[in-house]
Amino acid sequence: MSNEQPEENSRGIARVTFRVRCETLGHGEMVYLSRVGDASGFRIPLYTTSKTYPWHTTRTPVSLTLTDNDDTNDSAVYLYRYAIYRCGAFHRWENPSDGGRDISQESSTRIVPLRLFDPDELYLINDTLGVVPSDHRIDVDHVKVKKTFSSVASLARKSSTGSAVSLYASSNNNHSRNTAGEGTKKKVGFAPQPPPSNRPFPAAANHKTAKRAVHLTSSDGLIVVSAFLPVHLTRSDQGEWTADWDYEALLSMQTHLRVTRIGTVKWRGWHGNVGGGKSDESGVPIDERHKVEAVLRPFNCVPVWVPTSLFGEMYNGFCKGVLWPILHNVANVYSSSTRINTEYKQNNDANKQAEPYDDSEYAEYSMDDVAQGPIHGDGGREAELWASFTAVNRYFTDVIIQCFNEGDLIWIHGFHLMILPSFLTRRISMAKIGIFLHTPFPSSEIFRTLWCREDLLRGMLNADQVGFHLFEYARHFLTCCRRLLGLNHGMFPDSSGGYNLAIDTNGRHVSVTSIHAGVEPPVLNQVLHHAGTIDRVYSIRNQFQGKVIFAAIDRLESLKGIPLKLLGLERFLQRCPEWAGKIVVVQVGISAFERGEDYTKTRNEVLFMVENINNRWPGTVQFQECAESEMRLQQRMALLRAADIVMVTTIRDGLNLIPLEFTVAHLDALSEHGRKDGRKRGLCILSEFSSCTRVMRGALHVNPWKISEIATAFFQALTMSEDERMRRISIASEFVTRVTTQRWALAVMLDLKGVQKNEDAGKYAGAGLGLGFRLLGMDSKFNSLDANSVARAYRSAKSRLILLDYGGTILANDNSDALTRFQFVKKARAPSVPTEGLIATLKELCADKRNVVFVISGKERHSLTKTLCHIPNLGLAAEHGMFVSWPTPKIGGKRRWETLVPDQDRSWRSIAIAIMEVYTSRTHGSYIEETEMKVLWQYRDADPEFGYLQSRELEDHLSNVLRGFELDILHGGVEEGGYVEVRPKGVNKGVVSMHIVKHLEKMTDKGKLEFALVIGDDHCDEPMLSVMRQIGRRAMEARIARKGGQPLAPLPATIAQVDVSSCDDYISTNLQCFTSTVGKKPSAAANYVNDVDDVHELLESLVKVTTRETVHSGFYSVVDLKSMADKSSTQILSPINFEPSENNLIRSCSAGELKVAHQDDFNKATPVRVSTNLSEFLGTIEQEEDEDDIFF
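-> C-alpha cells emitted (1192 positions)
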C-alpha cells in the first residue's frame, strides 16, 4: 500500500500517517491498519513506545493515490478499519468495547474523503480504537514537512528500529504534543543522540553531554518478573477463583507506571511433588487455567504455566538445594548425606525414588528424589537439575516476549532467574533489563565451587543493571567477575553527567546498584489499627503480663542461628539469674520443609534446647512452629506490636524486613502518649550478618557466633537508660520512614531507565552460543567484512597496501591461554608456523607489482625471518614495528633490518630486569619475558587483584628509576593478559603503519595509495587499525568536500584520535581503506571477520582476482570502457599494464582517472584489443559475469 504509483489521470500521491489511541489492548496484542476492499489482505502494523503510549502509529506514511475527480466526487473515499493481532496472528476486528462506550452503528469502517488531501503533502489521522463518530468524520491534520529532508519516508529508512512517532515528532513536535490529548509530561533526559550523517557535527572535543534528570512518567512501561506472582489465589467449592494482593510481598506495591507482573502462581502442588506419592494436587488444573488468567487480568498479572514437576526440580532441587547454600557462603563438603551421585549412578532407573517419610507434609516438600546436602559436579543428578533450571527460565522468556512492548523496562527479581537476561537479550537485545538479588552474594572462593559459575555470571551480566541490597554483596559480585571472568570495574560516566559503579564487559557498562529495600508504613499502620490485630496484641500481652517480651520469627534452618540465640539466652540467665521469670522469649519457627535434612536437624536441636531451658527456668521460652501461611503480615504485626524487643541472630541473611516492621510498630514510643504505657520497648538486637544491620544503626549489633555478645545484648536491652533507648529508636526510625518500598523501587528504576541503550540499535550485537551468549557494545556500523566490496576495490586499484598481523590473524595464536604463553616464552613449546597454503597465498599477493604486503608482528626478528624470509617482496616488521625489513625480491640469507627509532643506550634493560626480578620473587605466578628491544613482566597467572596491585607499584617504580631514558612503560590490564612492558619510546604498530605509507613511493611506482586492507586480532593491533581507519576517513572526507557533500559523523569515542595529516601527500582521494579485527569484539576497526580461516579465504579471493586480471588483461569490461571514455582528443585508452617512462609525462592519478600522454606518444601506445566478432564479444561478457558470480 505504501508503494502505490500514480495512475495516468492521477494528480499525485498524498502521504498519510495513521495514529490510533489504544488503551484496551491486552498482553501481546498489536493493532494493524487494514484497507477495506484490498484483495491482497495486506495490513500495516502500528507501533508504540514508552514515551508515546497509548498512541500507536504507523512506522512509515501510507501513500494514497489522488485523481483529478476527487475534488468533485464525494464517492472518492479511503475506507479502512483496525484489526487486533495476538501473538502475531489475527485475533479480531476492533469493536465498541475497545473505546469504552457505544457507537451509533455496528460497522467499524472508517471513511476518509480523498478531497481532503493535496498531492505531495504529509497528513496525520488521529483515531481512537473502537470509537467511530456517527458522521464518520475523521480527524485529519496537515503536517508541514521540513525542507531539510527529502521526504518523511527517507527518514524512516534511516533506522529500521526507530519508532514512526519519533520521526514524526522531529518534523512537528508541537502538533504531536497538542493532539495527544494529554497534559505536559515529564521528560526523560538522555545524552543527545548522534546527529544524522548528513548534518554537520561539532568537533568531538567541544561536544559535552548535557546533564539532564531522568524521570518516570505514567507512560513508562515496566515488566516485573519474579518466581511467584504477589497475589493470593482462592478457589471456592463451586470452582470459582478469586485473587487478592499479597501486601507483604515486596513487589505488590502500587505505582503510577504501567506495570505488568509475570511469574508463577502458588497453588497446592505447585512444587510438583506428590504427598506420599498419592496426592492428586498438581498445581492449577489445566482446564481451569483460563479462569485464573481472567482473575489475574485486572491485577495486570500474567501467569507462567510451567509443568509442576519441572518447576519443583528447579525450585527445590537446584535453587534451594544448590544455589541457596552457596549464595549464603555455605559449601559443606563434609555432608553426612549418602544420597549423592554415587547412588544416582548406581540406580539410574527413572521410576525409582527414595522411601517417603512418614510425615506426608514433609514428604510433599522435601523432594525425596533429590539428593539433599551439597551437590557438586556437572553430571548425573545435578545435570538434570541444571537442565530444569534453564528450562524454567526459557518458559519465563516466552511469556515476557509476548508481553513486551518497545520501550518497556524489564525488572527481574530473585536468584531463581539469574540466567534469564541471557535468553532475553538474544531475542530483544534493545530492552533495558535489570536484575535484583534479594539474597546475599558469596565471596569468590565460595562461588567458584559451582560448576555453572561462568554461566550464572554471564547471565547476570547480560542485564544492563545488577542490584543488591548491600554494597557488601555487590563487592563480592564484582570480585567474582574480576577473578572468574577477568573483567574490570570502576566509576563510569552516566547520561546525567554523574558517575556510576559499573562493570566493563565486551564494550558495555553493566551498572551495579546497591540500595536496601524498605517497608510501607501506611500499609503496616493500616494492619496495626485493624480490630483483629489489636485484639491479638492484647491477648499476647495478657498472656505474658508483667514480663519483658523478646520476639523472634525465623525459618527453621541452620542459617537463621536459632540455637545460637538460645545459647546466648541460657548464658545470660546463668550470669543474671535475677531476671529469671521476668522475661520471656517468644520464638516462632517457620517450617522450612524445602531444606530437607537441615530443617529436621535444626528443628530437633531447637526443641531439645527449649526443653532444657524451660526445665531449668520454667516459662522462659515459648516456642511455636507454624507454616508460612499461618504467620502472614497481620499475625506477624500483632506479635511484633506486643513484643518489647525483637531479636535476629542469623549467621547469614539477605533481605529481612522483620526489624523494619518492628520499628514501624513502635514508632509511637517516641511520643509522650506512646510512653504512657511504661514499657521499655522498641529496641532491636540484630546480627551483624543480616542485611538490615547496615541501615538499622540504632539497633544493638551482635556477632551471633560469640555467645557472650548475645548474652550482653540481653542485659543491655533490659538495663538501658531511657535517653539512650529513645535515641536508638529515633535513629532506627530514620531509615524506616525515609526509605520506603516505593522509594527503593523508584531509585532502582531511575538507574535502569537512565541506561543509554536504545538510542542506537546498531550499537549492540550478540555473540556466542547457548548460555555463552553475550551482548557486545560496539560501533553501530560494525559489521562483518564484506569480501565482495574488498575484491571490487582491490581490482580497480593500481596502488595497494596490505597490512597483516601475524599471530592470531594469519596464524594460530600462541597466546591462546596462560600455559601456552608461558611455555612459548620459556621456549618449552615450538611456535606455530604458517601452512603451505598460506605461504603460497602470500607469494601470489607479493608477486603483483601493484601490491605492497607487510606482516607486522610483536615477535622477534629471528622468528619472522625463520618462517617468512623465503617469500620475495614481503615486508616484515618485528616487535610491534621497532624493526622494519622492506620488501626485497631476494630470498634466503639474512634480511636487512632498520629500526623505527634511533638505536640508543640499552643499559636500561639490566636496570628494568633487576627491578622486575624483585616483584617476580614476591608475586607467585609472575615471570619476566625478554625480547631484543623490550622487557615484559607478565602476571597473567598471578592472583588477579594482588597481581594488579603489584603491577601498579612496579609501574611507578620503573617510571621513577628510568625517567632519564627515552622509554614507554605500558600497563596492560587483565583482559589484555596482565603485563607491564618497557620498550623504546614511540614504537607501536600505528607509528610503523604511517611510516610504511610515507615510504610507499620507494616500493612501488604505481602512484598514490588507492587501496588498503588492514587486519589484526588483539589490543596490540588497535593502534594500527585506528591509524589506518583515520587515514581512510581523511580520503573519504576529501572526496565528500570535492563534491560539496555534508561532513561525516564523528568516529566512535573508542578510537584514539591521531594526527595522520602527514600522510595526505601519499594517499589518493579515491583511497578505499578496509580495517578488520579477527573475532566479533569491540575494536577500532570498522569491520570484523570471524576467525583465521576467514582471513585466509579473503586473501585467497584477492589472489584469484589478480589471477583473472592476468588471464583477461587484453580485454576490457563494459565498466572499464565506461571509465576510460574519451573526453578529448588528447586522451587515449591506455592498457592496464601501461608502464610510465621518462619520455612520456604521466601525472599520478587515482583509480578511474585518465592518464594524459603527449600527442607524440599516441602512436607508441599499445592499441586496445577490440572484439572482432560477436562470439568473442559475448565470451568476454560471459567471463566477466562468471567472475562476478564467484567473487561478488
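The mean pLDDT is 77.
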